[in-house]
Amino acid sequence: MRLKRSFFFVIFSLITLFSSVNAFAAQQSFQSWLANFKIEAVASGINPQFFDEVFKGMTIGHRQIHFDKTQPEHRITYTEYQSKRISKHRIYLGKQALKKYGPVLKNIGKEYGVDYCVVTAIWGMETAYGNYMGGFDVIRSLATLAYEGRRAEFFRNELIIALHILQEGHVSRQYFKGEWAGGSGHSQFLPSSWKQYAVDYTGDGHKDIWTTKEDAFASMANYLHTNGWKYGEPIRAHVILPHGFNENLVGYKVKKSVREWETLGVRAAPGWRLPTHNITASIIQPYGGPTLMIFNNWRIIMTYNRSTFYAGAISKLADEVCGR
User: What is the reported pTM?
Assistant: First the structure.
């Protein structure tokens, strides 16, 4: 019995030793990668001393690598997704947020020509109205994913921009946190999205989507506006297809005017109405969901997150929060 215990102790010790050796080797490799990356960062305008301070003592983010390699594949239905993401509590929090920030959200909506209810819904979906913006250090996440190599070039570029955000003082390191893949702030922008869409709405010289809600709201509105939001147009409508409808006409690639769809027998579902006849639309049937007629603004929401389920949830949450 003693011999058996000794055998297992030896095996356990060897496994621990090999794990420690592998971890040490990986960390050494990471430090070598950082040394090479520093050359690129400095060439882009990052101060060498600042670089050293940012990366001092940094280790690989093993959780980020784990999440990157094991993203869930479980498929749920459109209806299940909505019931999970648009809870009564999320709607309640949205209505409370509108009571507090409604005036500034409405003003920003008017200025950028977008639906402030959708801006509110995106805020609610991404960070639960600022209640949870993620706890991963953005620099460490991006460095880890750039080092890992699966999408090295993409994350190297994001990391360069993130370093400039930090160096220019738009956010302090303690608030530069987000989800595991590098999205952060109230809007959960990647650094490249921040660079393209972030707005200094308060005029303090910083595009602060992390601690200044006005900047975050305006940045989300600017995102929608820049990508082609059409003010006053709907997002989607539930419809009923006629018997024998050509299934080849269902999908994002087929675009027709509302009048043309009506000519083919498409009708609004009870409680819904179709907009002006000359608006272009597509018919989609999300997995486990209703038949929808979707318009330009639905596609704009999908540029934020390329998911039919996400676009549906944002449009529904916007309606629920604004009581329309």
Answer: 0.89
